[in-house]
Each structure stands twice: as C-alpha cells, then as structure tokens.
Amino acid sequence: MTELGGTTALMVLLAVLFWCVDRRRSALVISYAVAGLALLLSLKALFALPRPPADAMLVPLEAEREGYGFPSGHAFAAAVVYGGLVSAYDRAGEPRALAAAGALVVLVSLSRVVLGVHYLGDVIVGAALGIAFVVAMDRVTRGDPTIGFAIALALSVPAFVIAGGREDALLGLGGSIGGLLGSQRLPALPALRSRLEAALVLVVGVGFVALVRGLASAVATVEPLLVVLYAVLVAGIFLAPDAVGRLEVGPLESTRP
C-alpha cells in the first residue's frame, strides 16, 4: 500500500494514463507531481525535522531512514496525484471518485505511520499540503501543462540548491526541463489509430521508462548526467505516441481504439 504513494508507482500510473486515456489532462497532473516534488524537498530541508527513531519501524527499511520526516512525501504525493487526477478529469463532483481518491490518500498515509517511518502529524500535514497544492495549481495553470512545468522548473532550482544533490532533487530539475520541452509537442501528437497501437505504445513506453531508470541507477553519482536522464525520461513519456505513430504498419490501423 505504501508503494502507491511512491515515485515509481505514481510515475508509471501517470504515464499509462497519458499513453492510453487522455494526454493533456494526464500531462497536467504530471506537471503537478514534478512541481510538488520540488516544493516538498524544499519544505523538508527548511523544517529539517527527524523521522521516528529506528526502533519504531515495523520492519527494517533502511532506505526509509534517509532524509527528513516532515512533511510526509508519500502522503503529499498521493494527495497531489490522486487528487490532481480527480480535478483534472473533472470528477470533483462525483462522490465515488472523491471517495476512491480519499481512500487511497488515507491508506498510503496510514501505511507510513504503521511502518514507523513517519509521525501522524507528518502525514496529516503532508496530505493537507498536497490538497492545497492541487487547488493552487488548478487556478494558476488554468489547465495548461506547459505552465505547470514552468512552475515546476521555478520550484526545482531552489529545491536543488537547498536539498543538494539528492536524487529526488535531480529528478525534479530534470523532470521539469523534460516536461517543459515535451509538453510543447502535445498539440501535434497523432491520435491512436487502433487498440494494437495503444498496446504498442504501452509496451514501448514501459520499456523506455525501465531503461532510463536502469541507466539512472548505474550513474547515480554523476549529478549532471542524472539531470539529463530524467529530462529525457519525462520528455520520452510525452513523445512515445509520436514515435510509434510514425510507424507505417498496416495492422496498427486495422482496428479503431
């Protein structure tokens, strides 16, 4: 459950929605996620509040001991992504959509407390900040992903300075640059021609994401290269439909999506 608020799961979810459902709305939420990551890193570094002691952990998760605890990144990210999807897809007036998003945010948040990597106050504030952030981004971006990524870039630069060379800071900086460049191509992306093409975009896209993430792990100590790779990652997510759409293969046009 806690992984549903993690970077990898949320990245894959948003990428799949972008490739197969609605590009502009999904790209908008991706911009929220990247901008929110940068803001959160700055807040964590500024507050510099510790996590619970190691003996409070339910299971030994050394990776979860890194960094500061307040506010909770998982709770914040869950609120930004799931709440952002409800807003971007115009489902805010539907009780079921609100209940589903709210349940996911609550469960992700509580999982962090149960695991012993956050205090209750960390997740409450994280989730509340995430909801407030979505409301603010909705008003400022007016549904334009390019504006969202411009805000992400403006937030990621101070986050990089404040938080240092943390991987999340590099992801925020590279992701905002890649998103700003890739979002320029959104109006020109070709529509899916068939279900087969949608499946091919999904396979190519997931493979591309896995490849870039693997390369990023291999060069984790080279900060400039990581920024470039994360820029390529986000831009590549946006351009995958364009790459597949250029293939002139008969079966791709045989069935409508």
Question: What are the salient characteristics of this protein?
Answer:
PAP2/HPO; mainly alpha; transmembrane helix; 257 residues; 9 helices
Molecular structure report:
With 257 residues, the protein is mainly alpha-helical. It contains 9 helices and no strands. Helix 2 (23-47) packs antiparallel against helix 7 (167-182).
Give me the secondary-structure topology.
Elements: H1 7-20, H2 23-47, H3 73-88, H4 95-115, H5 120-141, H6 145-163, H7 167-182, H8 195-218, H9 223-245
Mean pLDDT across residues: 87
Relative strand content: under 5%
**Total domain units:** 1
Total strands: 0
Order of helices and strands: HHHHHHHHH
Structural class: mainly alpha
Helix content: over 70%
The rounded distance between the terminal residues' Cα atoms is: 32 Å
Task: Produce a short descriptive summary.
With 257 residues, the protein is mainly α. It has 9 helices and no strands. α2 packs antiparallel against α3.
